[in-house]
Amino acid sequence: MHKDFWGMCFGFTCGNAIAYGLMTWGPMYLATVHHLDIKGLGGALFIIYGVSVLGGLLGGTITDTLKRKFGKEHYNKIMHCNLLLIGVMTGGAMLLLSQSDSLYMAIGCITVALFFQKWSGCLYWTVPTALAQRENIGTVGGCMNCVGNIGGAIIPLIIGAIVGSTGSYFLALVLFACFGIGIGLFSLLINFKKKIGVEA
Q: Is residue 196 a part of any domain in this protein?
């Protein structure tokens, strides 16, 4: 398979791993480590997911604005820089969370991580149209979604095994940080300006 295809699939999988992992284990982490009761947990999750939803909208708007300003010839650089920024911010937030003992910092770190993960999601969903021939866009998008959701389904089991065997969330949060960096690094395998199977 082409490196662009695998870059797309694994980059999207890294984002899904963070989204699914935090969706399933984030509330348990806040309740167990930071002793939030059900009322406090509801408020924290409202903030986290309320802000993160803006990531997709704002991130897509910023990317489109940059594309209009600098032109299609710089599209590769724009996408790579955006996704590298997303990777650094998401991974950095998770790494900082692994060192945090403050409830407010924990909520802030998770919010930042999911904000940028939503940004990555909106960008990765444009990749099938950039890479695939018109008659194959649905198939390529379906493959990306399939691989991403397999990863998203497996990661909660892995996090549970890590937390269960170590009695700590530290290694799980470091794993999330690695997935964050993966969002950016896998994007470097993608040539956003050239369709697979088309000669330069």
A: no
- The reply to whether the predicted model has a pTM over 0.85 is yes
Question: Which CATH number belongs to the domain containing residue 96 in this structure?
Answer: 1.20.1250.20
**Token pair 């590769």 in the structure block, residue:** 76
pLDDT band (50, 70, 90) for residue 1: low
33 within domain boundaries:
yes
Q: How confident is the model at residue 200 (pLDDT cuts 50, 70, 90)?
A: very low
Q: Domain for residue 200, yes or no?
A: no
Closest CA to 192 of 128, 121, 116: 128
Secondary structure (H, E, C), 123-172:
HHCCHHHHHCCHHHHHHHHHHHHHHHHHHHHHHHHHHHHHHHHHCCCHHH
d(CA 168, CA 84): 29
**C-alpha distances in angstroms, 115 versus 30, 43, 133?**
18, 17, 31
Domain span holding position 120: 3-187
Q: How many domains does the chain have?
A: 1
